[in-house]
Amino acid sequence: MSTGTDPLAPLAELPGVPEAVAEVRKSVDRLYGHRVMRRRASEVTSEAALRGARASAALDGADWPLEEVRRRTDFGADAEARTVGAALRVSAEAGQLLSTWRHSPLQVLARLHLLAAGDADGTAGRPRRAGEGAEALFPLELKASAGPEAGSDAPSAPIADLPPAPGAEEVAARLDQLSTLLVARTEGAGAKAPALVVAAVVHGELLALRPFGSHNGVIARAAQRIVLIAEGLDPKAICPAEVGLAELGTDSYRRSLGGYLAGTPDGLAGWIDHCGRALRLGTRESTAVCEAMQRGMV
Prior knowledge:
Blueprint: H1 17-32, H2 37-59, H3 66-71, H4 79-94, H5 98-103, H6 105-117, H7 139-146, H8 168-187, H9 195-209, H10 216-230, H11 241-248, H12 250-262, H13 265-294
Helix pairs in contact: 1-13, 2-4, 2-11, 2-13, 4-6, 4-10, 6-10, 8-9, 9-10, 9-13, 11-13, 12-13
């Protein structure tokens, strides 16, 4: 059994990170103290899952109105519908995978990809193999990779300068390292990094690795939510950070991810702060839901 200090603990001391952690804690505590949470917590959880899924799909280019997501039942008609359906399926099951996550995070990630990709995808539920690539993380990358439309002189959309996804061998090694680190946190003693820091690292690492052929963004954001539940910061899953990420915008998301990938102290701190700001915006969204419930509007 490990008794050493959590390797992620030093990240909590980077400039600006203690303040980000404290602000997130305050925001989450305020939401959990709302009087509606005493009577209708399960409804707030369900609404947060729906809104988080809608926002996660929007970040992948399927920006549907909330009411459209709420009323639709067919999510296989086209690419956008499939993206929304993937986000909904992953969001619905993420909170049920907590016990497995504690001892086998990789098994959970495989399950999330199977949910997102569906049985018809021959690569569903397993990481990329040698020679297999990963879909672009952001819609603008997809547009840029396709180039300008035929017959058009318009330039491709600008994209952030993100490095290519690592090869399958590096992905497998880094996933094993991440899994070992997460499992050790549940077994070891000593100083541990705050939940926000752990969630941000898991989120960033999965975006960096793009371990699956598709849906890596949806899976990374769902994994962040699972960490926040497992670490006790958001045990009822009522703080949809995906909503905050969408509100902050994909440009800011890409820039902050670039900082994480650079691995500098400023870059890492900036990424953690970005995840913290998104989480605070998610708590604001659920606070508005609670207020609407209190007024009898929901």
